[in-house]
Specification:
The protein is an alpha/beta fold and about 450 residues long. About 45% of the residues lie in helices and about 10% in strands. Helix 6 (about 160-180) packs parallel to helix 7. Bound molecules: D-xylulose and cobalt (II) ion (CO).
């Protein structure tokens, strides 16, 4: 089927098992193998990011692009269509069942909104054609509300009503396109929804406007029959100094206040979690505890750098802890693992892109296998159950059931006199060592 020359040196990648030395093979991702009652392909729901994979060329603050992604195209629209062909070829070769996009990754912006919509429609037709040949669907779509200068002060939180209206219109079109492409979910990442200085910012007004923005989008998406949910992707900073969707806990409070918690879930990105001063696992656990775990932007940051490096995830300790959370959440109900990740600027060949995806997919497939082993081993779950065992009987049971009053607790404590004897070790080092046993033995 290969229609482009771009990935011509990338073969169809197959599972060959852990011992293979073939770089273009999976060691742990076996798409058709059944895990947790589903194929690995269905369980992990891997997704390609259109922007990093087909658009980003390695440009950074200090230097121009290092990767040639002109795809031999004649003009802008030809380029957009060639990207579709290359993207589908790539997804087929690597058994990637989903992709995620921003509207402006798919097609260039025109002089007017109407013109931009027409260009987008033309590329959507090309995607629909490819979807007839290759089974690749949309995990989520999103509107790029942060690149154009009109959004310099935000979109849904812009102080300018015209900009707000324009952004809403862009979202409307993007929801339509997402659904037309068979998309499951629609995502909001608050690119410039934040502030630089409080000297010119009314936080309360901007957040209320954001709630109106999300409510309108939610109502429209539901009216059109979006099958999945809406995601918010938390990030604490970058591009603005303070982003409103700081972390999962902040987003949850916002959703509750604005009665949006039934339709919205969070899309957790590993590198955003660490920018917020949290671990990836923390963000997943907070989402699960509050019933808003939705999807994952799979990548990793560099803890020595304070920005969003969007590296391909290769740290198996992290992917294992992540998949432990996904297992506990009962798997992905709507979302999946979207590689919001890019090959390093020095890894500039098309083959590097494939090798990066293989590395990320195998890291998560191995993480899933190890998470299942950890659960079967039982040591961590048992330690957790033991830690809270005092709430299963006696006074603890009465607290949880709501039977115990404040007076009862006082009486109990006075009778005891001192309770230090009830306190047990947290055994952190023992648990870390047990985790290493399961990972490496
Ligand atoms: C930016 C980021 C975005 C979102 C989609 O940090 O993660 O690519 O995932 O807009
Ligand atoms: Co992201």
């Amino acid at each position: 089927m290969s229609t482009t020359q771009f990935f011509k040196n990338v073969p169809y990648v197959k599972y060959e098992g852990p011992k293979t030395r073939n770089p273009f093979a999976f060691r742990y991702y076996n798409p058709d193998e059944i895990v947790e009652g589903k194929t690995m392909k269905e369980y992990l729901n891997f997704s390609l990011s259109w922007w990093h994979t087909l658009c980003a060329d390695g440009t950074d603050m200090f230097g121009r692009g290092t990767m040639h992604k002109d795809f031999g195209a004649k003009d802008e629209m030809d380029l957009a269509k060639k990207k579709v062909q290359a993207g589908f070829e790539f997804m087929e070769k690597l058994s990637i069942p989903y992709f995620c996009f921003h509207d402006r990754d798919l097609a260039p912006e025109g002089k007017t909104l109407g013109e931009s919509n027409e260009k987008l429609d033309e590329v959507v037709e090309e995607i629909l054609k490819q979807q007839k040949k290759v089974d690749a669907k949309v995990l989520w779509g999103t509107a790029n509300l942060f690149n154009h200068p009109r959004y310099m002060h935000g979109a849904g939180t812009s102080p300018f009503a015209d900009v707000y209206a324009f952004a809403m219109a862009q979202v409307k079109k993007c929801i339509e396109v997402t659904i037309k492409l068979g998309g499951r979910n629609y995502l909001f990442w608050g690119g410039r929804e934040g502030y630089e200085t409080l000297l010119n910012t009314d936080i309360g007004f901007e957040l209320d406007n954001m709630a109106r923005f999300l409510t309108m989008a939610r109502d429209y998406g539901r009216k059109l029959g979006l099958p999945g949910v809406f995601f918010i992707e938390p990030k604490p900073k970058e591009p603005t100094k303070h982003q409103y969707d700081f972390d999962t806990a902040t987003v949850y409070g916002f959703l509750l206040k604005n009665h949006l918690e039934k339709d919205f879930r969070v899309n957790i990105e590993a590198n955003h979690a660490t920018l917020a001063g949290h671990t990836f696992q923390h963000e997943l656990a907070v989402a699960r505890a509050n019933g808003i775990f939705g999807s994952i932007d799979a990548n990793q940051g560099d803890l020595l750098l304070g920005w969003d490096t969007d590296q391909f995830p290769t740290n198996v300790y992290e992917t294992t802890l992540c998949m432990c959370e996904v297992l506990k959440a009962g798997g992905f109900q709507y979302g999946g693992l979207n590689f919001d990740a890019k090959a390093r600027r020095g890894s500039f060949t098309p083959e590097d892109i494939a090798l990066s995806y293989i590395a990320g997919m195998d890291a998560f497939a191995l993480g899933l296998r190890k998470a299942i082993e950890l659960r079967e081993d039982g040591v961590l779950d048992k330690a957790l159950a033991d830690r809270y065992a005092s709430f299963q009987t006696g006074i603890g049971k009465d607290i949880v059931s709501g039977k115990a009053t404040i007076e009862d607790l006082e009486k109990y404590a006075l009778e005891k006199g001192e309770v230090l004897d009830s306190v047990k070790s947290g055994r952190q080092e023992y648990l870390e060592n047990e985790m290493n046993r399961v990972l490496f033995s």
